[in-house]
Amino acid sequence: MYTVSIHKLKLQSERHIISGTTASNEQGHPGITRPKGLEGVSCESLTWQTLRSVWIIGAKERRSWVQGFPNKNFGFINNRTVCYPCGNYILFLDIETKKKTFLQCQAGQVGAFTTNGNTQVLAFSDRKLNPIIYIYSFPELNKLTELKGNAQLDYTLLALSFKGPYLASYSSIPEFVLSVWNWKENILLCSESQLGVTATSLSFNPMNWQQLCIVSESSITIWHIERNNDEHHLKQNPVKLPDEQGFMNADEGLFFPVFHNEDPYYGPDLPVSAIAGLVGDEAETFMPRNKMKPPVHPTDHSWTATSKVYVGCREGFVLAIDAQTLSISFLQQKPLPEYLCKILDVVSYARREVQKKKGGKPEDLQKPALFSMAFCNEGLYAAGTEGTLLFYHIKYGQYEMKICADISEPISSLVFSPDYTLLLLVTDQGTVYTYKPAHSGEAVKLLDACSSCFLAADFLTPGNKYCVSVTVSGEVQVWFLEDGTCLSKLNLDIEATAMACCPSSNSVALGTSRGQIYFLDVTNAEAPRVVHRIFLSKFPVLSLHYDQSGQFLIARATEGHIFILDSRPSKLFQVLGYVVLADEVLGLSVVSDFKNDLVEVMALVNVVEVQKARLEIFCLSSALTTDNDKYVNEQGVLNASAIKKQQYDLDCPLSSAVRLKDNLVYGYCTCAPFICRYHLSQENMLEDASAFLSEKRTPSNQFGSGFLCLSPNSQWLASVARDGVLFIYHISTMDILAQNHCHSYQGGGIRSMVFSLDGKFILVTGENDGTLVCLKWKEIKKTEDQEADSHWQSLLAVLNKCTSNENTVLKSMAEWQFDPESTSESLPEDTFKEAACKSSSVEVTEEDRNITSLYSASADDMSWMGQKIKKIITEENQRFAHQKEELQMGIKKLRKTIRKMMHENEQVPDIEKLEQQEFNLDLEEQEKTQAEADQKVDRVRNEIEMENLANRYLRDVIKHECWDAMCVKGCAIKCFHMAFDVKNYPLTERSEEELEALEKVLQLKNIETTDFKVQKKNTEIVCKPVLPKEGEKAEVMADDSASYSPIGSLSSQYGGDTSVLYPQWDLHTREQKINQIVLLKDIIYKVKTAFNEEFYAVAQLKEQEVARVKERNLRIRDILSQLGVQMKVWEPALTDDEIPERALTVQDSEIKAEKSLTQQEKEKAELLAKLEKERRDASTVLQIDNERLRALDDMMGGVLEIKREDILKMNVPPPPFISKSEDLWNEEERRLFREYETKVKELDEEKEEYRMELRQELKELEASIQETTQNFDETVCKLSERKVKFEMAIYQEELKILNLVYALLLDEELNAREAGLHNFLMKKEKEKIKSARAIQTTKKKIKAYLGTRETAIAEEKNLESGFAKEFADVPANLLDELHQLYKHRPKTPVTEMLLDTANPYKDCSGSAEDYKESLTLLMKAMDELDSSEHMPNGLDPSVWEHFCIARRNKMESEELVKWTAQTLAEMQAFLHRRMVENEKIESELKAIFQELTWLQEEKIKLQLNLIVQFLLKQGQVELKSAAIPDYTDAILINKSVVEDLNCSIMAQGEKKIASMVECKDFSKGIFKLEWQHRKMRMQIEDLKQKAQDIVTLPISKDRQLFLTELNYDSTIAQRISVLEQTLGTIDKLHKKNVKNCKKRIKELEKCISLKEQANYKLSLELKEMLVSVSERSNISKAADIRPVSEKIRKERYQEILKQKHLRNLVREEEEQVEILQAQVARLRSRTFPIL
Asked: Which residues of 396-540 form beta strands (DSSP E)?
């Protein structure tokens, strides 16, 4: 039966679902279509995995299609079809019809790929874990087999043999295994690892399948497949390549030194490989760099018909390698005629000049680098990076080169068709050309390539005919939706970021990374064109969205910007405004409300502060397009009140969200694989009222980041993620309707997907696989189909109203001229500059600063936002035009005044001016001296320029090495009053490798520490820290100071954490020493960093002090100026040592020499000086002529308000009558004079008082400066003392590192040598064992096989000798004729492929495994000889038939003898090779054992001592006794070991007592809790019973009677009397029943006695019957009536089973009756509780 269940929906994405039959199949299942290619498969084998994408259930066939860009991996599957992998698919292209078909890899992305056009077989692997190799046939695309190897990650190369069922595979990291398969029998023949070799090409020898060639970037390996009967072995034969100059390197054995030079300090003399640290196979072939020359770099190879390999190299060589002897020869170019050499030189020169102009490396035509090769009968075709197809005619090691075609693109591979009539040229970009060697024409382009992947795809309105896609590089394609035909292409050459199709017109919007949106007219699908472009802003456009009505275009940009545009061409795609959100927008969801004429936009915002999602929802009304100024401000920002912005916080972080019309939101969760559903209502908010709680979480079967997409009818929800699987859910139930693995995780997953408007198509693009997949529904419910169709029709009814009009406008729009150097439409440059100048006087508010920052000063970068800002600036300029005119009038008036003053200055007599010429005495001598000086200046100038050039180069080198490479720059701090400074530690930035190593070591140390604690805890209780008593504090401090001695440094006191270090006496292993070095380096870095922190703190303190001193000096200068004292003020400043950055720049003040000026510069300087002087004179005249200023200066000293600081400048003006004589003064004047004297006296007193205050303040400021600077000098001195201690700690750690490095160096060299020898020894021992085992096994097999061969030969001879005997009755004349026919053999059959004369490998030899195939072909050829036409006349037909059979047997026997002979020869050759190898291995083993013995002795000598560093106090050491103890047998241990032991013992006792007390208290608590628990349980039971009683309390008739009857007691008494009477009656009846029961018992007892008597009689009868039964059984055995008895027994057994079954039914019925009776009784008791 079928294992496929009927599903609701299924997506079709398989190539081989092309045609099928709907007739009833062999199992009688009508209506189920079997796909083409699966007709021969049984129904039982069709599982879900087979039909996961093949789903046809009674529906009409429909195709899906796949489009993808080609890559470099191409192959011919037959003479007219090429194929190439693309993402999850393999695409097949018919060269003649250009039609494409595809095959999907169900496991994910296609990995390695190869074809065999001769057999029309293709092989490819997937890219999942433990990949599988699939073999398919063409054109049926039937899967022939699956090969499951041991590869873990991926296969990099596959190759099919030219003849035979053989496949070679090469896996990547970590195995690097070469495997050879027999794919027809699904057998792994052999495999071998080649670790670390990343192969670039792999191929079989077409002439001999037992030879393989693997080429990597630096090596070539020929593999021989050695066959030993049914065993296969791979033998590696590396080819030694020449160096880059074409010379072969000489072999020098450096693994075993000639002699050993012992040195007790520096260690033994070791080979270079051990010093280099090589222990593997590299140690055997290691060669020093000075003796090693880099080999050539192979690029491609090709086999010849003589089993040679032609190899192209990047250096331009063409190597010819003999696959058997591994000898290498160089192909030399045949000398050309002189005229051809001249022509070639001219062409080469022209090409070099062109390459130089293009900025590329010049190519040499005479020696080009070949990157692709293809061999044919005529010669060798090759090509390289120059894009030229070359033909090499090779003869006797020399070649003649001919240029066949030039495509001007680097060619990566050349592929011949199976019939060798067509050559395929594949470029680096993936463009494919075809070339016909027989016609010698130009190369014809077959496929275009694209340098990027698909970005997005969308459907053109109405969504059922065309679709549009765009690549990342800006190439737009229009596809026919039915079969995927590419109708047109348009390359915009931009970096595209988003694309969307407009529903209301056939326009396409394309967003770029520069913030631009291109609008394309696609009304003509075969000729798309750009009609408009809008430059929104500098922010990249992330996504584009249209509402369903096609009225608005919403563009999402970075930094939370969302732009709203009118999507209609009739409005010229007007920008309506934009919205700025607080955080980055992750996605948009647009919902159209046709009833209210609104468009609701939901933005998913990424809130960085919290792990939650936030939704921003705002509405757009149609009035926004008609009255735009009402809804936006001057800057174009939409008003928050107009768009009704709302905000919702969700409980989970989301990566994508979609919204429905009923406030339902579906989101793809980022922290877990869930699809969350939210209902934006108050009921679904959390308790804290801060976020909405999800109503439902649907688990997702996907992994990685993903997004959601909603169908146009809002009924289907699509979910895609990084795994490349598309899931479609039903929106109401969230059931999975369909899923499709259209892309893979290896290709980055799915980039975009979209539903068509009618919901019948889905477009999916991959992230990095360059694939566009179109999916169609294969089976869908009729109701859902009708619903989607009705929604589509209703939407079209709405859209058709404006679609035709908008398309008409779109067609009439002129094509926009694309200028690649321009990024936007700009305003005139003069207008822009004027606006920029005017903008300097405009005040910009704080809210507008973010917007104005986007405004560029370049006219070419004017965006829509920049135009808005410019408009605002222009309006402000117009608003303040009156004030500007007033300012301009004032400036003109001032200019007139200055000109008047200049004119007056010209009227001054010139007698006071001295001309320069008056001081010149000898003009001729002056000119002569000037000429000599000019020559000398020129010479010196040239010398200085060269010197400066050298100094600049030296400065750059020093700056790069000593400045740029430092993360902490070296600087110093100097004292204010002392010639003393302190420098910091310059530090280089630690690399990522160092940080990773440090982190790894720290983790390892923490693990070791934790492990040590756990082990210690398992053996003893860890002692708790005990606080020291007051009397013990001094001892503890002494112990702390002494604890630094075993550590060997004081780094812990100065910022280094020595707790992570290993004890010095525990550094026995190499890993510990290396980890210790890493930790010590980290400690040194931390110590230096700690000092630098203190250093920078002091440096910052000095900057503060200098700033304070400068601030105080300002006040001091002010005081001195007020006091009129001339005194030099001490001004501190930072030197170049403190600010080293200043040393890199030269100030003008540092240049002591006078600057040399040219004559023009001198004239310009004089003119500027003259203008400056005139300006100063004019300003002076202006001040003099200004009456207002002079009056203010005369009356109030030039100021309007008198300050206290100006009191020293104040004077009391004398009265005007002071010039009169005192006798002439009247009383009023005398009174005024007295007042004048009083004022003068008071002013003098105030002046003197103010002077005293200033002097006191001056002293305080000077004292404060002196005190603060001296305090800083003391701080610097303390810092210097600290640095000495830091230096001490650093030197101590560095000494440790040196000792450890020295020990590691010796240990590493010895270990490397020992490991290298052991590795070499193990390898040789394994080879020895393997060789001996192979020899022994082969000998046994040969011995056994000789018997098989002898048997075959004997049978063949018997058939030959027995011919006459077998046909003895045939007449003699006929017998001779039959004997001749008996020896006659047909011609050797050949396949049709080998008859092709164009194939250079037509004479290829088969293998021993082709025996069955050749025998089959031979038997087919015998059919003609067995016909009656060849029968001799007069021969009986029966004899002829017998003769034909005998001849066939003879031929089979002959073929068997030939096959056994071939197999035996292979086995003997295999044995001979193994014996030669065995002898060579024995001689190598002796040399290894001698070297190992010497090495072990040296290693033991050098590993006895351990260097330990101690800190000792300086001074003398006194001993109590004169004798010095003998420490030869002493062991150095840590003091903490004994202290820890004592502490642990004390802690054991304290903890034991504490645990006993705790156990006692705990047991008391347990008893108390148990009592309380029992008490509470009883209370719970009581309360439950009471609650149950309350719940089950019925309102009976008694209670009703008690509530209704007035005389309740009398009623109860009456009832009691009635019940008593009833009880009496019941007692009487009971006594009567008891009497009857006793009577019945007596009767039963009598029956029992009778039954016992009857049973006794039956027992006697049973004994007699048993006797008779035994007698009858003996009789039956003798009579053999078992069949009859068996039949009777079975019938009786069936009757017994039937009775038993009936009894069980009766018992079950009785139980049911009892249960029903019990239920009736229970119901009766509930209904009538009194009874």
From this structure: 398-406, 411-416, 423-427, 432-435, 444-447, 454-459, 466-471, 475-480, 486-491, 496-501, 507-512, 516-521, 529-535
